[in-house]
Design brief:
Number of strands: 7
Shape: globular
Radius of gyration: 18 Å
Oligomer: single chain
Helix content: 25-40%
Order of helices and strands: HHEHHEHEHEHEEE
Strand content: 5-15%
Length: about 280
């Protein structure tokens, strides 16, 4: 994979609170720099290298600052759920999971090997912390809607207005889960996404956040840009630089407590692969 910057791996998350609630992840100053050497250990899926690069920063911010899940709370009932709908080219996902202690970094050396739990698409039955098996595009957002409805039915979803911590989600955040779905812009060409967008907006699924990595690879697009496709159906939306960690943090915690939330993470349309070629596939 392409090189970034190198430094020590961040320490694992602390154990869960005695109540069994999923604690907020600790923010780290140097953990992001651990990703390049981890990425370089993953070989055999170079054709999806640009796809991995385009999601790296969003994935890091989610796991380092936003998601209420750790290696110790992967089975906590009220953990946040993260769904990688854009499941092809999961190298960045695996690198982040390794950096955060969900999987041993030795697994990265044998992508798709005969005994490896890491495939070209992530498998929820084999990889700790993975919520869905994905790779076939167009399904993640609908699955996220259904997952959130299930959490609501069990009383496990986040509800605004209660007493709780103030960081990364506001009052009441300590009491329940949110669902985050990472989608590629080209994936929105699949019609199943539009049903999920319309339903989530009409039902005001405020605990749902969609992150669209937008690198201009969609075939059809939408008049007024991707954000308008969601806002017309009642979502709150923000468009930010997909490499800006502070901007991503601010918008990923920018829910209004009433409507589902969209973050459009703009990234370069093309990436340079490790062999020096430009590739826009993501």
């Amino acid at each position: 994979m392409s090189a970034f910057i190198a430094s020590p791996v961040a320490a694992p998350h602390p154990p869960p609170a005695p109540t069994g609630s999923a604690p907020l992840p600790p923010q780290t100053a140097t953990g992001y720099a651990a990703l390049p050497p981890l990425l370089r250990r993953i070989t055999g899926d170079e054709k999806h290298e640009p796809s991995a690069n385009s999601t790296l920063d969003v994935l890091w911010v989610l796991y380092d600052r936003i998601l209420r899940i750790s290696p110790q709370t992967v089975d906590a009932a009220n953990r946040d759920r993260f769904l990688l709908s854009k499941g092809h080219g999961p190298a960045a996902y695996y690198a982040v999971l390794a950096a955060k202690g969900f999987i041993p970094d030795a697994w990265l050396d044998d992508l798709a090997g005969p005994d490896s739990p890491l495939g070209h698409h992530p498998d929820r039955l084999l990889v700790p912390g993975v919520e869905i098996g994905s790779g076939s595009l167009g399904h993640g957002l609908g699955l996220g809607v259904g997952m959130l409805l299930g959490l609501r039915a069990q009383g496990l979803a986040y509800r605004a207005g209660g007493a709780g911590e103030t960081r990364a989600g506001g009052a009441g955040r300590a009491g329940g889960a949110r669902v985050y779905v990472l989608v590629g812009d080209a994936e929105l060409d699949e019609g199943s996404n539009h049903e999920a967008i319309a339903y989530a907006g009409s039902r005001q699924l405020a605990e749902l956040t969609a992150i669209v990595v937008d690198n201009d690879s969609a075939t059809h697009g939408w008049p007024g840009g991707l954000a308008s496709r969601f806002s017309v159906n009642g979502w709150t939306t923000t468009t930010v630089d997909g490499r800006d960690h502070e901007a991503l943090t601010a918008t990923l915690t920018g829910h209004d407590g009433v409507r589902p939330h969209l973050v459009v993470a703009r990234t370069p349309a093309k990436y340079t692969t490790s062999d020096g070629k430009e590739d826009g596939h993501a």
